[in-house]
Amino acid sequence: MAEALATHELSVLLGKRQVLRQLTLTAHFGELLAVVGPNGAGKSTLLKTLAGLLPYQGRVALDGHELGALSASERARRISFVPQQSLLSAALSVREVVSLGRYAFRPALVRERAADRHAIEAALADTDVAALAERAFTELSSGEQKRVLLARALCTEARVLLLDEPTASLDIEHALCLFTLLRGLATRGHAIVLVLHQLEHALAYADRALLLARGEALALGPVREVLTTEHVRTLHGVVMVPNAAPGFVLPESAR
After folding, report:
1. Tens of pLDDT along 175-229?
2. What CATH number corresponds to the domain at position 236?
3. What single-letter DSSP state applies at residue 204?
4. In whole angstroms, how large is the CA radius of gyration of the chain?
5. Which has the closest alpha carbon to 151: 174, 176, 120?
6. SS3 of 253, please?
7. What is the DSSP string of 129-184?
8. Which of 16, 103, 139, 154 suits 29 as a labelling partner, its CA being 20 to 30 A distant?
9. Of 229, 104, 98, 94, whose CA–CA distance to 158 is shortest?
């Protein structure tokens, strides 16, 4: 599979704190890469850096292009980032929030075109927020807001998606729908990089996993080869109990 993202000796310093150290990784089109690790490991910082939101040392390549050499609009067309929480405080409607994902595709003051409207409606439908389209974003629950932010990311039609704890605040049904959607996107050639805290989700849905500990890569590879009892104990100080967690599937998957 072709490389979507690649870093070489990536380091990030925030204030006086070294958050990421000499991190080398790859993410490919057509796969779902899970980033796992304890609180403070540098997971969110990594995603923000890959999205071009933080300064860094080393090299970051996006679809073969040096990240720092791309303009903001070029980055926006190639990569989209869904944060843990939104700082949006304006009472924009859900549809207006999702439509923000189209700004990199049209000049300023140009009205929505047919392609924009199609992308917006498809994103609203895929994330099950079409019924909320006229609601104010600020009036939604945290789980609903998370789905709207995902819709905004999908609306960009970027082939690389970065998602920071996308299932946080989601109920079981919408979490399962999210993973079904992400797996479908990966099958169609997207590269999905997402931070996950629930290891059972990484094992069930990811192709590969990056294990982060204190800003460094503990392991990177096929998810079942790196999420071992030894690595989990090193990362989290706990012992995995095989088949201990309850499992859930969507009704159509149970037939």
Report:
1. 898 999 999 999 999 999 999 998 989 999 999 999 999 999 999 999 999 999 8
2. 3.40.50.300
3. H
4. 18
5. 120
6. helix
7. -GGGTTSBGGGS-HHHHHHHHHHHHHHTT-SEEEEESTTTT--HHHHHHHHHHHHH
8. 103
9. 104
Q: For residues 63 and 52, what is the distance between their CA atoms, to the nearest angstrom?
A: 14
Indicate the length of the chain as a whole number: 255
Number of structural domains (the chain) is: 1
Domain that holds residue 33: 3-88+158-253
> Using one digit for the tens of pLDDT, what is the confidence trace for 13-33?
999 999 999 999 999 999 999
Rounded Cα distance between 72 and 52, Å, is: 8
Per the domain annotation, does 204 fall within a domain? yes
Whether residue 247 lies inside any domain: the answer is: yes
Q: Tokens 């939104």 — which residue?
A: 86
Helices 142-155 + 114-126 axis angle, to 10 = 140
* Beta sheet of 208-213, edge-to-edge order: 79-82, 160-164, 191-195, 32-36, 208-213, 216-222
Q: Which residues contact 5 (CB under 8 A, 6 or more apart)?
A: 25, 26, 27, 50, 60, 61, 62, 63, 160, 191, 193
Residue 140 counted as domain residue: no
